[in-house]
Amino acid sequence: MLNKLRDLRAARGWSQADLADKLNVSRQTVNAIETGRYDPSLPLAFTIAGLFKLRIEDIFQPG
Amino acid sequence: MAPVVKAPRRYFIEFNAALVLFIASVVGRKLLAPGIADPVLRDVIVASPVLPVVLCALAVFRFYHRMDEYHRLQLLEALAFSAGVTAVVSASWGFLEDVGLPHLQMFDAMMVMMLSWAAAALWLGWKDKISEGRGGAALRSVAMTFLYVAIGTATFGFIMVVAGFVTPWWELALFATVLFIARMGFFIFSKTSAC
User: Fold this and answer.
1) Could you state, in order of their start, the residue ranges of all structural domains in chain A?
2) What ipTM did this prediction achieve?
3) Is B161 inside any structural domain?
């Protein structure tokens, strides 16, 4: 999966740790998602989409 | 701070508390058991290290439920790898015993499982750090891991010698393995990765 998480996070001026804190995940998990090493579960994808007030498909696209 | 971030430190505290209890029970049973006439009480004291071993497993179980989904996947991948290694090693060794290899105890299979689990989990953690461009932090963590295991095992051996016991190699190996597991969990799942 491709995702725009890094861009969305940077646009808000958040660090990986800030985003991790808001999502209740570790910083390593945010890094793994941003670098494409890990695709989040559907519940986490919904949480991410909710945080950025976007739809899941606006953030994640098939690679 | 998100609850998931506090999980590694809580795990480290719980696991090390169980370790202290483990040392106390291993030393205690050697000190007390020979002087106890009641066979039931003696058996209970001799079997007492089982309790801290169960507590160690509980600490891992509680940690599993506190970590996030990515780390759960890593933990399970490492566990699956160790199950495979243990199956291959134990099955192969069993057949090779027929051609002269020494007979091993159940303890040895457990040590193979724990060591391969810890090694796989460490590998996954190091891979993460290197992919983040934090090779220096990974190297420091490797050095700290060896220091932690070596100093901890030497301390355990020293306590046993001072208490007047000959410590069999497997007891030292078991202790070193348990320390390795404790360190592995903190290393991989810590927030800063620089514990």
Assistant:
1) 2-55
2) 0.92
3) yes
Distance (Å) from the alpha carbon of B2 to chain A's nearest alpha carbon: 5
Structure tokens at B109: 């299979």
Chain B residues with CB-CB distance to A44 below 8 A:
69
Which residue of chain A is at minimal alpha-carbon distance from B3? A24
CATH classification for the domain delimited by A2-55, as one of 1.10.101.10, 3.90.1150.10, 1.10.260.40, 2.40.50.320? 1.10.260.40
Which of A21, A22, A28 is facing B70, going by the closest CB pair?
A28
- Provide, rounded to the nearest whole percent, the portion of chain B with pLDDT above 90: 24
Residue with tokens 């060896």: B146
Inter-chain residue contact B5 with A35, CB threshold 8 Å = no
Question: What's the predicted TM-score (pTM) here?
Answer: 0.76
Task: Flag whether pLDDT at B194 surpasses 70.
Answer: no
Q: Which ranges in B33-68 belong to alpha helices (H)?
A: 39-46, 50-66
Number of domains in chain B: 1
Burial B117-133 (b: 16+ CB within 10 A, else e): bbbbbbebbbebbeebe
B117 vs A41: which has the higher pLDDT: A41
Q: Is residue B195 part of a domain?
A: no
Per-residue pLDDT of chain A (63 residues; tens, 9 = 90+): 899 999 999 999 999 999 999 999 988 899 999 999 999 999 999 999 999 999 999 999 987
Residue type, B185: G
- How many Cβ atoms are within 10 Å of B38's Cβ, its own excluded? 9
Interchain CB distance below 8 Å, B5 and A21: yes
